[in-house]
Write a structure and sequence with these properties.
The protein is an alpha+beta fold. Helices cover 48% and strands 13% of the residues. Helix 12 packs antiparallel against helix 14 and helix 19 runs antiparallel to helix 20. The two termini are 29 Å apart. The structure holds adenosine-5'-diphosphate and magnesium ion (MG). The site of adenosine-5'-diphosphate (ADP) has 17 residues, from strand 10, strand 12 and strand 15.
Length: 698
């Protein structure tokens, strides 16, 4: 194993392996299942299972697992070994088609939001043949969907596959209207850019807040942070470079197209981007990437922090979701073309996204809502919580010209009539400049930038695919019944631009003036927290859209809302309890001891000369005593707010209390602790400081 091409995908049961190891008719049948979603018969499944097992055992695998993505946000696996007893007392390695297709894990401990009473513990996992099986360690992992016995989705893959299906169905209707008779499917693809922090394991271990919550709950600003912008794209430190090298190798073996890596804005922050691929596979790959990053970091004495906001006052981590849609023959539907025909089609697909983002701003916000990501959105670094689309000046001017029937003043002065004129050639690189937009058109794809670094990309893409499918459905309904396609198309684009242009904004998304304009003048929604947005998952328009497209049932939506809100509440309560414990057990005693020692030293000095001022000691002791009193009061207040949560009648109310009482209380408690840190001698302070943490990876 020397060159990358020798080992790339070596741990994946991919098309190459299938083609070479499966009997021709089995391969053809499986391919039909993968490409067209035809049903798989048990005979084929048995043959695939046999080949998979033989391949996996040759690679040293002893176990197999149905690998799935429950609503906890991470992946789950339960390992079974291949061994079976032979009549002569020896063991044989066995794996049947039935075991490949379906598993029955005890599902009682996975969140179901009331969809499955715990006494009906069983759920089942069903093989997703569209995502290749792979070997991790000594285990053959089979990507699966996870459902309850009643058939309700208990995972993220099932609705994602449904949303891809819905999008494909509606997009095909549009393509047919444009005379495309050959496309059979339309597929959405994603390239997620993953940000993360690397810190030393030793420092991490010394911080209970990082260990219990993934973020620091205390920490004064270090003398040097990201002010100098000297980290972004800077030289990668040797320890970090070694980590990246190992990581790439591991990802490549799994067929994950890790492509670019660089230092990010904050010290200790980095980014990894793969080459884009089908959304379903991109989702599986991103989950694997996050898992493997943590594993490889541990080998290097590092910890990989995927939390959205591990450090206050330093940029947080996101995940840019680069999304596009293409036909099965590879035509990107978001790419402006060279002919009038292609351009009209492009503009219609563009409008489908504009309408989708405007009508379902709330669903997009909901799809990225977690307690941890709330720290980014709306703070002055990540996109704001208000959703808008950046199109760039050129494309905006084109749409504007169509809407107002005025000549387009771009390259040539022409009245744009769709179907008759060629769009001016768009200069692609000019569209990629705005970094503050939550949803930016970047030449031939959209970049949704609100995702948090730890989010599964499934949620955002479920909503994006569905909302666009909804637009396309409405467009197709209207255009299919038109007598004159071209004028109906022109009218539809014109109307869509007029109705939805409020969502287009090319300016600075971090500007306060924009937030005011967005919310007051344009009526865009601004949900700052998970507690604010999540209840809207059940708004009639959202339920109507998602159920009519077959992406979710109403029960599934209700359960998801509850699970997300429970998760929000539990996350914050754990953080609050961690703070209280750190204050009582470590911080307050440390400050108090330091103050007492200072007082003692002053007293000793005064034995030499009672008139000595001992200004440093006296001032510091006084200030620290004031701070410890504040800390004490605020700790009690925080405890009280936690007790107050019992008064909540339901999860929506509890989440609101968390937002209004617990989170502000945590903010209040942190202030005097961080002030005290700055006044306390290093040897007394019980935890590594921000400076220690941020500059710890070598
Ligand atoms: P930047 O940091 O400028 O946004 P990167 O190169 O870091 O750019 O990331 C761009 C991501 O977008 C990559 O994952 C890339 O594979 C992906 N991408 C490129 N073209 C498409 C496309 N047509 N559809 C989806 N993703 C794409
Ligand atoms: Mg990007």
């Amino acid at each position: 194993m020397n060159t990358v091409s020798d080992y790339f995908g070596s741990m994946v049961f991919d098309d190459r392996v299938m083609r070479s190891r499966l009997p021709a008719e089995v391969y053809a049948s499986l391919r039909r299942t993968i490409d067209e979603g035809t049903e798989l018969d048990i005979g084929v499944a048995n043959a695939v299972a046999e080949a998979m097992k033989a391949w996996a055992v040759e690679k040293g695998a002893t176990h197999f697992t149905h690998w799935f993505q429950p609503l906890t946000g991470i992946t789950a696996e339960k390992h079974d070994s291949f061994i079976s007893k032979a009549p002569d007392g020896s063991v044989i390695m066995e794996f049947s088609g039935k075991e490949l297709i379906k598993g029955e894990p005890d599902a009682s401990s996975f969140p179901s939001g009331g969809l499955r009473a715990t006494f009906e513990a069983r759920g089942y996992t069903a093989w997703d043949p569209t995502s290749y099986a792979f070997i991790k360690g000594k285990t053959l992992c089979i990507p699966t969907a996870f459902c309850s016995y009643g058939g309700h989705a208990l995972d993220k893959k099932t609705p994602l596959l449904r949303s891809m299906e819905a999008l494909s169905r509606q997009a095909i209707r549009i393509l047919r209207l444009f005379g495309n008779t050959s496309a059979r499917r339309v597929v959405s693809s994603v390239g997620p850019e993953q940000e993360y922090f690397l810190i030393s394991k030793e420092m991490y271990d010394a911080r209970p807040d990082l260990r219990f919550t993934g973020r620091t709950l205390f920490g004064a600003k270090p003398p040097k942070g990201q002010e100098l912008d000297d980290h972004y794209f800077g030289v990668i430190k040797p320890g970090v470079a070694a980590f990246m090298e190992d990581l790439n190798e591991e990802l490549w073996k799994l067929g994950i197209l890790a492509k670019t890596e660089h230092n990010e804005v904050a010290p200790a922050q980095h980014e990894l981007a793969p080459i884009y691929t089908t959304t379903n596979i991109a989702t599986d790959h991103n989950q694997l990437t996050m898992e493997i990053m943590q594993k490889i970091a541990a080998k290097h004495g590092l910890v990989c922090l995927l939390h959205e906001k591990p450090f206050a006052g330093v940029n947080g981590s996101g995940k840019h979701n680069n999304w596009s849609i293409a036909t099965d023959s590879g035509q990107n539907l978001l790419s402006p073309g060279d002919t009038p025909y292609e351009n009209a089609q492009f503009l219609l697909f563009l409008c489908s996204v504009i309408r989708a983002v405007d009508d379902y701003q709330d669903l997009l916000r909901i799809s990225v809502a977690t307690a941890s990501n709330d720290h980014r959105l709306g703070a002055n670094e990540a996109p704001p919580a208000v959703i808008s689309i950046f199109l760039g000046d050129e494309l905006t001017a084109v749409l504007n010209a169509i809407e107002t029937d005025t000549p387009y003043t771009g390259a040539e002065k022409t009245q744009l009539r769709l179907g008759a004129d060629v769009l001016p050639k768009l200069r692609r690189d000019t569209t990629d400049r705005n970094r503050t937009s939550p949803f930016a058109f970047t030449g031939n794809k959209f970049e949704f930038r609100m995702l948090g670094s730890s989010n599964s990309i499934a949620c955002a893409n479920i909503m994006l695919n569905s909302a666009v499918a909804d637009s396309l459905r409405a467009f197709a309904d209207e255009l299919e019944k038109a007598d004159d396609f071209e004028s109906a198309l022109h009218a539809l684009i014109k109307k869509t631009v007029a109705d939805h242009k409020r969502i287009i904004f090319n300016g600075n998304g971090y500007d306060d003036a924009w937030i005011a304009e967005a919310t007051e003048k344009r009526g865009l929604s601004n949900y700052r927290t998970t507690a604010d947005c999540m209840p809207h998952l059940l708004d009639a328009k959202n339920v109507g859209m998602l159920t009519s497209l077959g992406v979710f049932s109403e029960d599934e939506l209700r359960s998801r809302r509850d699970i997300m809100l429970e998760n929000y509440c539990k996350t914050v309560v754990i953080e609050a309890n961690t703070m209280i414990s750190m204050v009582r057990k470590r911080i307050a005693p440390a400050i108090s001891r330091f103050a007492a020692d200072l007082a003692g030293q002053a007293a000793v000095k005064k034995t030499f000369d009672p008139d000595l001022r001992c200004g440093y000691e006296a001032d510091t002791v006084k200030t620290l005593s004031g701070l410890t009193d504040l800390i004490e009061d605020r700790t009690r207040a925080l405890e009280k707010s936690l007790i107050g949560l019992h008064a909540a009648e339901d999860i929506v109310e509890e989440a609101a209390l968390i937002r209004d009482t617990v989170l502000p209380g945590m903010g209040e408690l942190r202030i005097p602790c961080d002030e005290a840190e700055l006044l306390t001698a290093k040897s007394y302070w019980p935890f590594p400081t921000y400076g220690d943490l941020l500059f710890s990876a070598k």
